[in-house]
Amino acid sequence: MAKGKFFAKTIFLAALCLFAQGLSFAQEKKYNLCYYGVVTNVNDQNMLNITQDLFFAQLRGISYLETQDMRDDEIKDSYKEIQTDESGEAFFKRAQSQVSDPNTIVFVTRIYRPRSDEKWQCAFIAKNMATGAVVSKGKEYDSYYKILTDAKVLIQSVVSGAAGNSDSETAGAQKIAGGPAAAGSEGGTENIAGSWGGEKDASKIILLRSGRGFIVFNNGATMNVTVSAGEGGTSIKIVQKDKFNASFYPDIDRQTILNFAESASPIEWNLTLTKSGSLVGKKKTLVQSGDSVEPASVDVAWTKK
């Protein structure tokens, strides 16, 4: 009788171990993802680069993906032919021959504007090459920049669907991978995500939920920034992420500012989110003083558009 109980217990433990191993395998299953960038009729290459870099970074943040950047692949030569292909099938047929591992998801974004006075159409499309499943989610936007602030959730949902996961499973995996929301994470910057104005030398200020953003200057230069929030979410710190660029200082003579290329600290904004919804505070930058420059703290006020 004792031997029978021991045998049954052994079988039970072995089965439990196999179940746990199978569960662990399911949770840790990874996919290769081929990222082909954006199919679009947008003519602003600088803005397109920012958009594609943002989407790529958001894909790389998904824990169960091994993401490959395929934007420079020769398949890009055919982009113009498939701008209006809403299903993405024409694109996937071209990509099929380049995928050797069936455990692969191919991902592409379609951003299209029929005419200059119409709304933007954006769709995120993914195909699981093993199952043939195609998942697409998209929206219409009044502003191109709304696409960027809305992208993260849609990207996660589309990839999750292509991988055969539920949205709740994906959210759980992301939470485990990233840990609790910290200052500067999406939880702290969600309230300020969107398009802002207030810099006299900037035409666009875009802050994203992911803790990233960018500023487009009137002279055409684009500065990528990091965005973090203090406890409570009202204290906001924005810091230049890019290397020194003389175009970030349009009020300073170009040759003068170039002399300080090696010593210039990143431009930094320390702002407070007011009850009215504006951002007010100080900007740490450089200002011209005669034939030289000096550090300065300048008052700034941003309003949401």
TL;DR of this structure?
With 305 residues, this protein is an alpha+beta fold. Helices cover 30% and strands 33% of the residues.
Specify the overall morphology: elongated
First-residue to last-residue Cα separation: 78 Å
**Average pLDDT number:** 80
Q: How do the SSEs run, as a string of H and E?
A: HEHEHEEEHHHEEEEEHEEE
Strand arrangement within the widest β-sheet reads 6-7-8-9-10-11-12-13
| Strand segment count | 13
Low-confidence stretches: 6-27, 168-187
Q: Which percent range fits the helix content?
A: 25-40%
* Share of residues in strands: 25-35%
Features:
305 residues; alpha+beta; eight-stranded antiparallel beta barrel; five-stranded mixed β-sheet; 7 helices; 33% strand; elongated
Strand and helix layout:
Layout: H1 2-28, E1 31-40, H2 45-60, E2 65-69, H3 89-96, E3 104-112, E4 120-128, E5 134-141, H4 144-163, H5 167-178, H6 186-189, E6 194-197, E7 202-207, E8 212-217, E9 222-229, E10 235-240, H7 254-258, E11 268-273, E12 279-289, E13 292-304
Parallel strand pairs: 1-2, 1-3
Antiparallel strand pairs: 3-4, 4-5, 6-7, 6-13, 7-8, 8-9, 9-10, 10-11, 11-12, 12-13
Helix pairs in contact: 2-4, 4-5
Describe the protein in words.
The longest helix is centred in the first third of the chain and has 27 residues, at 2-28. The protein is elongated. It is an alpha+beta fold and 305 residues long. Residues 6-27 and 168-187 have low confidence and may be disordered. The protein contains seven helices and 13 strands. Helix 2 (45-60) packs parallel to helix 4 and helix 4 (144-163) crosses helix 5. An eight-stranded antiparallel β-barrel has the order 6-7-8-9-10-11-12-13. Strands 2-1-3-4-5 form a five-stranded mixed β-sheet, sandwiched between helices.
